[in-house]
Structures are given as C-alpha cells and as structure tokens.
Amino acid sequence: MGLTAATGDAARPATAAPPAIELRGISKAFGPVQANRDIALAVRRGTIHGIVGENGAGKSTLMSILYGFYRPDAGQILIDGREVAIRDSQAAIRAGIGMVFQHFKLVPNFTVLENVILGAEDGALLAPSLGRARRELRQLAADYQLEVDPDAVVEDLSVGHQQRVEILKALYRRADILILDEPTGVLTPPEADHLFRILRGLRDQGATVILITHKLREIMQITDAVSVMRRGEMVATVPTADTTPEALAELMVGRKVLLRVDKAPAAPGAPVMELAGLRMVDADGVERLRGIDLTVRAGEILGIAGVSGNGQSQLLQILGGYPEPGAQVTGRATLKGAALPLAGADARQRRRVGIGNIPEDRQAEGLVMDFAAWENMVFGHHRDPEYQAGAMMDNDAIRQRTARLMQRFDVRPPLSDLAARNFSGGNQQKIVCAREIEEGPALLLVGQPTRGVDIGAIEFIHRRLVEMRDAGAAILLVSVELDEILALSDRIAVMFDGRIMGERLPGATTAGELGLMMAGVGEGRAR
Amino acid sequence: MTRLPRWADLVLTPLISLVLAFGLSALVILAIGESPWLALKTMVTGALGSSYGWGYTLYYATNFVFTGLAVAVAYHAGLFNIGGEGQAAMGGLGVALVCLALPWPHWALALPAAMLGGAAFGALWALIPAWLQAKRGSHIVITTIMFNFIAAAALNYLLANVLRPTGSMDPATARFPEGTALPRLTDMAAALGLDWGKATPANVSFLVALAACGLVWLLIWRTRLGYEIRAFGKSERAARYAGISPARITVVAMLISGGLAGLMAINNVMGEAGRLVLNSVEGAGFIGIAVALMGRNHPLGILLAALLFGFLYQGGGELALFTQIPRELIVVIQALVILFTGALDNMVRMLIAPLFARRGGA
Amino acid sequence: MTLMTRLACCAAALALSAAAASAEPALIFDLGGKFDKSFNEAAYAGAERWKAETGGTYKELEMQSEAQREQALRRLAQAGADPIVMTGFAFGDVLNKVAPDYPDNRFVIIDMVVDQPNVQSIVFTEEQGSYLAGIAAAKASKTGTVGFIGGMDIPLIHKFQCGYAQGFKAARPDGKVLVNYTGTTPAAWNDPVKGGELARAQKSQGADVIYAAAGGTGIGVLQAAADEGILSIGVDSNQNHLHPGKVLTSVVKRVDNSVYDAFSNPEAITGGVKVMDLKSDGVTLAMDEHNKALMTEDMVKAIDEARAAIVAGTLTVHDYMTDNACPVE
C-alpha cells in the first residue's frame, strides 16, 4: 500500500517536500464560458484540504481536470513535484488519484467485493482477484474504520456504507490522493461524523484528502487548509485555523453574507392544515407512515427534522398529491377548514386548493431538466387559464412571466431559453422557488430547499421563505440539515420511523436533544 | 461529453451516416461484380428522373411520414412504439370498412370518413398495449411488437374468410366504390395545367401527410397536451409531481401514435390499391422507426427522412428491375442506411465530436 | 480502359438497353417464386425456350408481396415491355385496373379472366387433367384411399380437387378421397414443410396415392410421399423426374407453351379468353421414362378411354368454378 509507506508527513515542515498536488496556471473554457481561469493550487501531502465555492465557481471542472475527464486549455499539473499529463481517468488512477463522486458509480446488484475489483481485475479469472481483494479489504477496514461486509450486495447497503465502498475502491487502486465531491450531502449526521473519522485516519496515515463542499461548518471542523473559488478563479488559500466561516462566505460570494437567518418572532394565526392519523403502506406492504398528526398554522414555519428515509419524503408526496404508485393512504386532513382527501388525490387538485410544493429532489421532480427555464416556470401550473391562448399554450405570456420572475429571484444567467440542466443547482432551485412562491399558496411544502445549493442562494431562499411566512403563509419545511431546521423553524417536529417523535420550540431545545430524537431515543410519544 | 452545434447534429451527422452507408453498399455491389456507379444512376433516375419515379417516391414517402410521426409522438412520451406495422395494417382495415360501407358519392366525403376509420382502428390497436403498459407495467416494446403479429394473423383471417367477396380467389376485399378514388397528384397537377405524367400512386394523401407534420409540430410544441407528453417523456417523476397522470399520457400518446400509423392507410389502401390486400403495409411501420430516428423526432426532419426512404424504396425497386443486382442485396442496402442513420447514429456523432471539441477549445 | 471510357460505355449500354426495352417482352412470376418446380417454373421454362430459340431477351420480376403487384405491372408497362405475361389469378384485379392506362401494351394473364381489350386471358381445363389423374390414382391405389393436398384454399384449387375426385370415383365408387389445404393465404403456395406434414398425416389415414396441387408446397408433398414409400401425383410442370419411380404421373398445364406462344407471336394476342384443354393439349398427363413402370396397361387403357370420351364431348367433367360445388365428395 502506498499509504502505509508514507507516514508522518503532516508533521514535517511544508518546505521539506514538494506538494502532493500542484496546479499551475490551469485554464479551461467551454465555448464563451471561462470555467477555470489561471488556477494555482498547492496541496500539501498528508493534509485535508477543503475547496469551497458557490455552484458554478469552477470546482467541479477543476476536479474533472484532475481526474482526466477534461483536458485543460493551458497549465500544468504536478504530482509530488513531477509534471504529469492526465489524459483519462486511468492515468489519474496511475498517478495515485482516487475520486469519490457525489453520485456513486457502483453497480447496484454486484457485491461490495465485485464492485471494488471492477475494472481492476488481475486477469480473466475472477477468483484470484477476489481472494486478494478480500484480504486487502479486511486490512483497510481495520486500518481506517471502513467496515463493510464484502459479500453484501451494494443496493442493500445504506448510503453511508455505499460511500465507504467508493472510498475502498479508490484505496484498492492504491490512491494516496483522495478527492471527495460533496461527500456529506447524502449522509446523516452520525454517518458524516464517521466519514470524518475515516478521513482523519487516512490523513494520519499520510494520505492527502481534497474535500469539496458547501458546508462551511465541515470545512472548519475537519480541514487543515482551505481554498476558495469564485467565478472560475482561485481567490484565496488559507490555513483553516486562521479563518472564520463568515470570512470564507464573504470570499466565496464576494460580499458580506448573513449566515444566520434574520427573522422576527412568528405570529401564528389560524391552523391552515390539520393532519390526523396519516398512515401509508407502500406497494411492498411496508408501513412507511404510522399515524402522523400535525398542525401547520398561518404565519409559521413548521420544521420537520429527521434522518432521511424516515417517512418525510412520503409525507411530502402525499400532501403534494402524488403518493408513490401502489401506496395505500389512510387518514384525515383539512385545509383551511375544508376536507382534503388524502387517498387517490392528484397534484393538480392540490395546487388548485392552494398547496405549493418545493420538492426534495428538484432535478427529478421539481424540474424537467431538458425543458427551457420558461417551460419549467409554469410546470404544474401549465393548465392555469392565464397561460392558455385558445387551444395552444400562451408561450409569450409564459416567457414574459419567466423574465419577470428570473429578475425578481435573481436567477443567473437570466436566459429564459436556457435548459434547466444548464443552470447551477442554486439557480435551478431559485426557478422552482420562484414558481411555487409566486403562485401565493396558503400552504407551502418545502423539501430540502438548500441541498446542493451554494451559500448565496441559500441566504436568498431562506429570506424568501421567511417573507412568505410573514405574509401569512403556512410553511411545512422538511430538511435533514439540522442547522437549517433550527435557523428557520418556528416549531420543530422530529420524525423517526414514520412517526412524529415529538415537537420542540427552537429556543427551548438543543441540537443534541433533537439528534437523540432523530435516532429514535427520547420522549416516545408515539411509541 | 462535447455537445455538437445544432447544425452538425441535424445535418452533418445524418449526412455522414448516409455517405458511410452508401460507401459500404458500393463495396458490397463491387464485391458481387456490379458497378456501384450504374446502381446509383439507376436508383437516382428511377426514383427522381421522371414524373413516374417521383410519383412512387412521394407515394412511399407519404407512408413513411405517417409512420415516422407515429413513432415520434410516442417517443416524445418516452414510449418506443414498435407497433406501427400492426397499427397501420389495422388502419387499413378501418379505411376498407369505411370505404365499403357506403356508396360514397365523392372522395371529398369519403376521405374524412376514411381518415377517421383508419385513425380509429390504428389508435385502438395501440390502445391495448398502452393500457397494458399504463395499468399493468407490461413493456410496450414487447406488447406492440407482439401486436404486429396478431394484426397480421387477424387480417389474414379476415381477408381470407370474411371480407373476400364470394367468388373471388384473392384474399382481398372487394374494390372500393368509384367515389372513394382519391385524386392523384398528377391529376391535380393536370387540373392546374401542368403536365406531370400520369398513373402514379402519389395522391392527395401526401398533402394530408404534410398537414399532419404541421399538426404534430403544433401538438408537441404548442399545446398543453404536447407539453405534458414531453414532460412525461423526459421524467415520469417530474410529471407525477406536476399532476400529469402517467397512465393518461401513456394512453393518449399511444392513441395519437396509433392513429397516425393508421392514417397511413388512406395512402396505400385507399389511394393506391383501392382495396385492402394482404401485407398492405409492406414494412412501412418499421421504416417509420428509422425515419423518426433520423429525423430527430421532429416533423420537418421526419419529412426529409421520409423522402430519403421513399427514394431508397423506389430506387431499390428500379435496381431489381434494371440491374443484375439481386433483390436481397437491395434489402441489404436499405438495411445499411437504416443501420447507419438509425442505430449507429451515436457512433458517427462520437467520431465527429472531437473535431468540434478541438475547435471549441481553441 | 480508363474510367471515363468505361463510364461512357456504361452510359451507351444503358441507352441501348433503353432503346431495346421497347420491344422486350416481360414475365412476372407470382408469389411462390420462379423456381417452384411447378406453376411458375413452367412459365419460366417457356420463356427460356423462347430465349434459346430466338436469342431474344426478356424482363422478369418476382413478386415478394401482395402490395407490389400494381407497381410491378405499371413499371413494366411504363418501360415499354410488350407483351407482359403474368402468372396467377391474383393479378386479375390489379390488371383490370392497370390495363386501361396502357392501351398500347399487350397483356397476357394465365389462370384468370380479365375482360379488357388489350388483355388475353388464358385458362386451363384443370378439371379434365385432374379427372385423368383420379383414374390413375384409383387404379394404382391398393388401399382404396387416396389423398389430395391443395395449396391456398380457393375455388381454382377446388377445381383440381373436384376433377380428381370425379375421376377417382368413376373408377372406384367405393373408394375414399382425403382432402387437405395448406392455408388460406398466398403463403400456402410456398410451404413445403407443411405439405410434407399433411402428406404424412394422409398416409397414416390410409392414403397411398397423393395428388398435390399446391405450387412450391407440392415439393414437400412429393418428397414425403417418396420417403413414406407411397405414390404421388405432381402438378403444372412434369414433376415425374423429381422422384423417379415414386411419382405416378403429373397433371401438366402447358403454361410454358402459353408463355412461349405469347413471346414468339405477340401479334396474335387479342382480347378475350383462350381455353387450353385436353383437346388442344393444353392439359395433359405426363408419361415418360420415370413413370413408365408405374403405368400398368389397364391404367393406360382406362385413361385413354376417358381422354377420348372427354375430347369427343361424350364425357363432361364438372367444373367446380361454374357453381362452386362438386357433385362427388
């Protein structure tokens, strides 16, 4: 193992050894867009180096260049002081670079072992490779707390374990420079903590880790140094100890950023939606929701905290009128005093009665990625009379509205003909928010509003949600980010295993208490 | 990775595919000791060199426009309708029943009725696979292809046992009444004072096909239904979020698709044969898949691709008649064009992508 | 030769062939194909005989599907082929539509009547030939049960079947004729595998002579009969040589003569119906060295008597197609 050979590098003075990775003058353009401009970066061996920047700042392009997906228009890449040409991912692997993508590249119906050796088999016969891999996996698991059952089928594993398999894949290929792209985006807090322990272990054994993330808290928590990118340029590299989240945020956005949500105390009014005894059994006969009682009042944000996969998605989908196919839904609900049918409902009916919906997965649900921005701006409301012109759709009216909303929600670039997939994550989310908020719903369902969204956009979206609340709307917010729940909610309900574990007021609870409730420990009202 | 410029995607790629297909065909023709040049000349003069050739080229192209549009509409809904063959055959049955039902006084009355009959039968034939897909999850590729066989068998039975007039030995319906004879393009040209030859089967259906191109364009890109079809085709989850019923769109898109395939029958059954014969579709349903692929599922592209395949069909027929190139080889040439323009489209795209990538990077 | 001169030659050849085309006769084969060893092949033989004797050339076309008929006809007419001979009743409807569009071309259709001034219809009295075959089968059968396998189930083939049954019953009133048809579509002309299966099935029911009137499908019938050690009767062409000593005889339609005549003397083609019967030798029973041993004296005598009676008009064989009914089972 390359890892075990190089130890204790972190303790050495920076000048003693060449950087593990050095980039000099890297530039890359896509047509008129300059994705990377004259990037210089040096990452010391044996450190965890964070790279932060808003979506579209050029982080992903830079990492794709390092991993051989793109070739730079100009510049040099040096590994351990030697210039290398990284033509493809094979070359990157030979140079000792391993990559863990945000979206895993695993074969779901293969076992862990098969996934690990995929593409790195010794020969035509699998048996010797598998035997060797099994021995090495055992060793790696022991060294770095990377325990995974080598014979488990990947699709049966939790997201956190799948991520470990990705890391194991890289290590098995002798990677001593590990790049992780938004690794905690899909993890629960305990899983994220475990990941950080693994990364520290790797660093202490002499590996170099590059961590790409939005979350400044994580940067502060785990990295040794941090580089900030903005609009294709590398604007700063500082030791983490010498900086603060506020300073980093300012560097990323180029202006002062408010990290706390500045909001007045809520003035809750009458209940907008009341939910009683909501149960749902999915097509496989598994009970996903086991009797949910909730009330959301006008002018308040009810936050639902919980580790993902505890029924929040099902709750949002049922309220949004599109339960998963084959699901059986029972329970009672009212909206503004009128009965709201839960079973057999459709999403159009929900919109008509005044329920807006910012879905958890904007790319798969909230947007049609191949549709232009203007087409997405009426998605779900496309049957509303104001967008019709006789038998046709009134595309001119829709484009005008889109131009207006893009300006109001600061969607960049403000091109209504651009396909949704060509916007950054934050701007995609702004399109969804613009559409749902501007319809003026009485109840707004909000799922993971800032997942994969850059800091500037997070601030913007949070402010809009609070404005809506202040205007008297009821907001049901689901998020796996405890920070977000704590910052935005006027009331917090914790969900675990299809039940509400209890409700807390944000001022009268702590992250620790909520964390225990999220893990199913505590009050036990529903037990 | 690299995205091609629009013109390269729409024009260059199909053109290179065609050149490759023709190049390979030329090699095959050389290999059997014939002259590719003579073959090409025969095809071009046979398909485009006379009013007769044009008449047949346009006739075939009309068939392919309808089946190509059928495939495209389903494709926009993310459905791969391979059943155009069976739906067009059933459309033929619908057209025949309408034409034989009444002693039609004039084609202008008979045509709309026949269009309804053909479209209805084609749509119904697509409805069953669509319903099975929407409600039972049976894969539409499998069911539509199976329904091609069922349609063929059903027509065999009906033509041999039910629709054959007594005393006739042909497994075909009786001849349609005089009043159902559609005006040929040549007659229409003559009415305008142009002498454009005579006795070719291209008929007023070609104009219907052109209108269908325009209507499909409007449907897909201008109407709410088209919007929903495209949204569903791109992402079923997003469609469900937006309150677009997957079952409804599956059924409606397939009804339109089957209806378009069935409409083809006004051309081949009503316009050309004047009666329903066995195997009247002659593979046009399958050609429609290649036409839609090559035409990028856009009505204008489909029209151009249909003209190309009309040329290949008519020119291929001329080859069989006037050269020693065996008929099987003509099928090989047509298959090569389908292979390159349809199936290997991405291969060509990958070949030319680096050229544009380098230009873009410089 | 340089490329240019070769191209020039090509062009010249093309021009020449185009000029010659105006006088070229043409032959269109029906589904089942040119080499069905039966009906279409008989036509092909006639055309080849004309070609060998006169050194002329002709165009030929094989049908692949029902829907192509009209275009095939029009294309040949357009190219100036004259006369255009086509085999098979299935062209009837299409020819009726196309012929008036090309008044200067002459058409000949075999096995079907098309009433147009520039179309000559040639029909054969298959019931007469089949009657003689029925007598032969009756004399050759030891079990008293014989078989008939038709191609497509249409009146024309019932005409064969009915004549065969009449002849058989005349010679053997107590005997039994098994009847099967291969199918109801033109595909039935070209399904030798199914033909063989039907022949085996009939043998298992006791048939020991089987008459196949099924185009290309008949090849399978003859093969199966030879394999099973029973006798068969061929049709249209002389098929005796296919399995020497195993094929009792063949009911020959002189399609070859009709094609030959049309090609050699197009001027004689006139509208109307030309009946080819026993009397004019349009229909015969094949006698050659391959079946000599099978034809007993008694059999030949009975056949000759019947033929004489039919030619003389004292014996009338019922034509199924006149009333779509057969007087015997």
| C-alpha termini separation of chain B | 17 Å
CATH topology name of the largest domain in chain A, in short, is Rossmann fold
Q: Report the portion of residues of chain B in β strands.
A: under 5%
Tertiary shape of chain A: globular
Query: In percent terms, what proportion of residues of chain A is strand?
Result: 15-25%
Largest sheet of chain A: 6 strands, mixed
CATH superfamily of the largest domain in chain A: P-loop containing nucleotide triphosphate hydrolases
| Average of per-residue pLDDT values of chain A | 87
| Counted beta strands of chain B | 0
Amino-to-carboxy terminus distance of chain A = 49 Å
Secondary structural class of chain B: mainly alpha
CATH topology of one domain in chain B: ABC transporter involved in vitamin B12 uptake, BtuC
Mean pLDDT of chain B: 89
Give the helix tally of chain A: 18
- Hey, which two chains have the biggest interface? B-C, 39 and 34 residues
Notes on the protein architecture:
The complex is a heterotrimer of chains A (527), B (362) and C (329). Chain A has helices spanning 2-5, 59-66, 89-94, 112-117, 126-144, 159-172, 189-204, 216-222, 245-253, 312-320, 347-352, 362-366, 373-376, 395-408, 425-438, 455-470, 482-488, 511-518; strands spanning 21-30, 33-43, 48-53, 74-79, 82-84, 97-100, 177-181, 208-212, 225-230, 233-239, 271-281, 287-297, 301-305, 328-335, 338-339, 355-358, 388-389, 392-393, 443-447, 474-478, 491-496, 499-504. With 527 residues, chain A is α/β, with parallel strands linked by helices. Chain A has a six-stranded mixed beta sheet, with helices on both faces. A six-stranded mixed beta sheet of chain A has the order 16-19-20-13-21-22, sandwiched between helices. Chain A has a four-stranded antiparallel beta sheet with strand order 2-1-4-5, with helices on one face. In chain A, helix 15 runs parallel beside helix 16 (455-470). Chain A is globular. In chain B, 76% of the residues lie in helices and 0% in strands. Chain B has helices at residues 6-31, 36-48, 51-76, 84-101, 107-136, 140-162, 185-191, 205-222, 224-234, 236-241, 246-263, 265-273, 284-294, 299-322, 327-343, 345-361. In chain B, helix 8 (205-222) runs antiparallel to helix 14 (299-322). The longest helix of chain B is centred in the middle third of the chain and has 30 residues, at 107-136. The mean pLDDT of chain B is 89. With 329 residues, chain C is an alpha/beta fold. Chain C has a domain at 126-252 and 284-323: Response regulator (Rossmann fold, 3-Layer(aba) Sandwich), CATH 3.40.50. Chain C has helices at residues 3-21, 39-54, 69-78, 92-98, 126-140, 155-171, 192-204, 217-228, 255-264, 297-312, 320-323, and strands at residues 26-29, 59-62, 84-87, 107-110, 119-124, 145-152, 176-183, 209-213, 231-236, 247-253, 272-276, 283-285. In chain C, the strands form two sheets. In chain C, strands 2-1-3-4-5-11 form a six-stranded parallel beta sheet, with helices on both faces. In chain C, strands 7-6-8-9-10-12 form a six-stranded mixed beta sheet, sandwiched between helices. In chain C, helix 6 links the parallel strand 6 (145-152) and strand 7. In chain C, helix 2 runs parallel beside helix 9 (255-264) and helix 5 runs antiparallel to helix 10. Chain C is globular and about 55 Å long. Mean pLDDT of chain C is 88; it is low at 1-22. At the A-B interface, helix 11, helix 12 and strand 18 of A face helix 9 and helix 10 of B.
